[in-house]
Structures are given as structure tokens and as C-alpha cells.
Amino acid sequence: MARKPNSSRQTEALIAALLQSAARWRYGYDLSKETGLKSGTLYPILMRLESQGWLETRWEDQPAEGRPRRHLYRLTSRGLAEALASPASGKEPAQRVGFVAAPEAGAP
User: Fold this and answer.
1) pLDDT value of position 63
2) Which CATH number fits the domain that encloses residue 32?
């Protein structure tokens, strides 16, 4: 039996992170830190979700001086509806991947 699309633990972790602030534009490094996903896993998922109509993307308008523009992502209305219909939509991003990210340096 074929697996349901967008049901991998990694994809579910990313969708959970995007659901936590669905209206806000997010960038890849931020999503990577929140989910614990490495760039080689994260960016292919982002591209796939965009091609499926779940995400809209744009380039950052005004990056900080000396920094390159970042690519930003957020759920479309279709992506939001599909994500909310997911049976695991109530889990935290780290729970979906199956681990808890290490606390950042200096965190209590």
C-alpha cells in the first residue's frame, strides 16, 4: 500500500512548525532550527510542498545590511486546510520527527 502524500515524520514536523504561525513568513534557517531538520532534508520538502500548492514563497524585501536576501515561506489557504485536516496536526514539530532539539547555548 502506498504511503499517503506529505505523511513522513520530517514533512509533518515542517508542517507543524508552519502551523504554529501560519500567517507569518518564515525562512529556511528558522524552520531548520525549530524542526531539527538538516538543509538536505528541509529544502526538498519545502520545494515539494510549494509545487503541490501548500506553500507560497517570496524573497525577503529588505535584508539586513551585509546579508543576502532570504527565501521566505508560508502556508497557502489550501496548505492550511490540508495541514489542519492531518491527524497529527496537534503535535509539536520535534514530536513529529521523534526527538527533542538540544537547547540553544545560554538557554536556561
Assistant:
1) 85
2) 1.10.10.10
